[in-house]
Design goal:
The complex is a heterodimer of chains A (about 100) and B (about 400). Chain A is mainly beta. Helix content of chain A is about 0%, strand content about 50%. Chain A contains no helices and 8 strands. In chain A, strands 2-8-7-6-5-4-3 form a 7-stranded antiparallel β-sheet, with no helix packed on it. Chain A is globular and about 40 Å long. Chain B contains 15 helices and 15 strands. The chains are: A mainly beta (about 100), B alpha+beta (about 400).
Chain lengths: ~100, ~400
């Protein structure tokens, strides 16, 4: 681990690492599953002006947290894109917006 | 882009008929697995004609259709039949895609196949011949996935429907909008506006359709006109390590299953292919007494190596309900990757090198007014929210 730098941490110096970055995603609205969840299906990711089709969804998982205050409700997708890259994106189900974020 | 779609409706029930062919033509029902709520998962047309519907309770089937035969899902056999179908079709085309949500739906890219296999009719005959007749496959050939899918759906059981590229719009025009692969909400909105056929939708100008229904509506409009350039995505050939143990006697206890799983993990990670590697997906299959089967798939959040796999699987499968006496267990490990570990301190940041670093940071701070060097600190490393796990903090000696 990194040795202690001998200085106190100040909150104003803390910068989030790996913050989510907004991306545009073309998605198909999901069918309600057995659990009642309607999970959107990403079809293409539009990032920095270029549209890349989603070839395969390799993995999905749900993160629901802090429901007792400002709920965090995200469906993560590990997708394989047509340009050969893998990306992790998520659908913020509270605001109906999409983000890219390494998980 | 000529694409063929091979469609086997009621796939699980047709697969069951491969074992009990004498039941062909009788009402058949696919029930939920024993540990799940006892409902109908699927019903063949003979059962549907007697009022059986997917989703209803199995006990209602007895009242509606006393002669119906109820099958339990047999994922092992279904996967084997689907894999066998794909393997046979691989001989005809390099691009064969099995729909991940429906094992009874396959897409075959026929681009360039005419010279090798002959006319579309000849190709269709060869595709149909590659499937067991008892599955009653329907084949559609069209200039895209969607036209091929509709053609397959409208083909007679065991038959073919080939759509000429020039006539695709005319073919799709009378087809109900229910065939469009869009959300139920969009279906409802289309029907509410009186758009009942693909021809109705295709006749509308694209701009207002996109404005009213968004990108999904625009895509639906394209599909309604027969334009679908979605390619056939051949499955990736995953490297998989499979180990199987036959039990000396059928086992019913969960503890026995876990002991066998631990044994399988030891065998798998003892193989040279898995040495020093980690795994992202685990599929556990069991052959049950009476010819049934059972399957569980666990996708792991992080790659797991041999040391931790036993514990991880114990947690994952420690509470599963075993649907019957187990005769054999198969463990398939896929998504093989190099073993991962948390990143260690970089050489340049070790304590003995801190003095020169501190001096360099002092210089930078003097020049820029603040330290432009940051270090990573753990904030909530256990958090499920990725941005909460670590933060950058100014390195200011």
């Amino acid at each position: 681990m990194v040795a202690h730098p001998r200085t106190s941490s100040r909150p104003d110096q803390l910068r989030p690492l790996n913050p989510p970055r907004p991306v545009r995603v073309v998605a198909r609205a999901g069918q309600p599953s057995a659990g009642g969840q309607a999970i959107a299906q990403p079809l293409a990711v539009i990032d920095r002006g270029s549209r890349v089709a989603v070839l395969a969804i390799e993995e999905t998982w749900w993160v629901l947290d802090e429901w007792w205050r400002q709920a965090i409700d995200r469906w993560y997708y590990r997708v394989h894109l047509a340009d050969g890259r893998g990306r992790t994106i998520y659908h913020d189900r509270v605001n109906d917006t999409w983000f890219a974020q390494a998980y | 882009m000529p694409i063929a779609c091979l469609c086997v409706p009621n796939f699980a029930l047709r697969v069951a008929l491969l074992v009990r062919p004498e039941l062909d033509g009788a009402p058949l029902v696919l029930g939920a697995p024993p540990e799940a709520r006892p409902i109908v998962l699927d019903a063949n047309p003979e059962a549907v004609a007697r009022g059986v519907r997917p989703g209803m309770l199995l006990r209602e089937v007895t009242a509606l259709c006393p002669g119906a035969t109820v099958f339990a899902p047999d994922p092992l056999r279904e996967a084997d039949v689907a894999a066998d179908l794909v393997a046979r079709l691989d001989d005809l085309s390099p691009a064969v895609e099995l729909d991940p949500d429906d094992p009874g739906l396959l897409y075959i890219d026929l681009a360039g196949s005419e010279r090798l296999l002959g006319s579309p009719e000849a190709v269709a005959r060869q595709i149909l011949a590659s499937s067991p007749p008892l599955l009653r496959p329907r084949l559609g050939v069209g200039p895209g996935r969607f036209p091929a899918r509709v053609a397959a759906g409208l083909a007679p059981p065991g038959g073919t429907r080939i759509i000429d590229p020039a006539g695709v719009a005319a073919f799709l025009a009378p087809v109900a909008v229910g065939w469009l692969p869009v959300s139920p909400d969009l279906h409802r909105r289309l029907e509410r506006l009186g758009i009942r056929t693909l021809g109705d939708l295709a006749a509308l100008p694209p701009g207002p359709v996109a404005a009213r229904f968004g990108p999904a509506g625009r895509r639906a409009w394209d599909l309604a006109r027969g334009h679908d350039d979605t390619p056939v995505r051949p499955r990736s050939r995953q490297e998989t390590v499979v180990e199987t143990i036959e039990l000396p006697a059928p086992a019913t206890s969960r503890e026995t299953l876990l002991i066998v799983v631990r044994q399988l993990v030891g065998l798998a990670f003892g193989r040279a292919r898995l040495r020093g590697r980690a795994v992202r997906q685990v599929r556990l299959r069991a052959r049950l007494e009476g010819g049934r089967s059972w399957e569980q798939v666990a996708t792991l959040k992080e790659p797991v190596g041999g040391e931790d796999m036993g514990d991880v699987l114990r947690r994952r499968f420690g509470a599963v309900a075993i649907p019957g006496p187990i005769e054999a267990v198969e463990l398939a490990l896929s998504g093989l990757t190099r073993e991962t570990s948390r990143q260690d301190t970089l050489d340049g940041f070790r304590a003995r090198r801190l003095a020169p670093l501190d001096e360099a940071v002092h210089h930078l701070k003097y020049r820029y007014g603040r330290s432009p060097v940051y270090r990573i600190v753990e904030v909530e490393p256990w958090s499920r929210i990725p941005e909460r796990r670590h933060a950058l903090i100014s390195y200011d000696p």
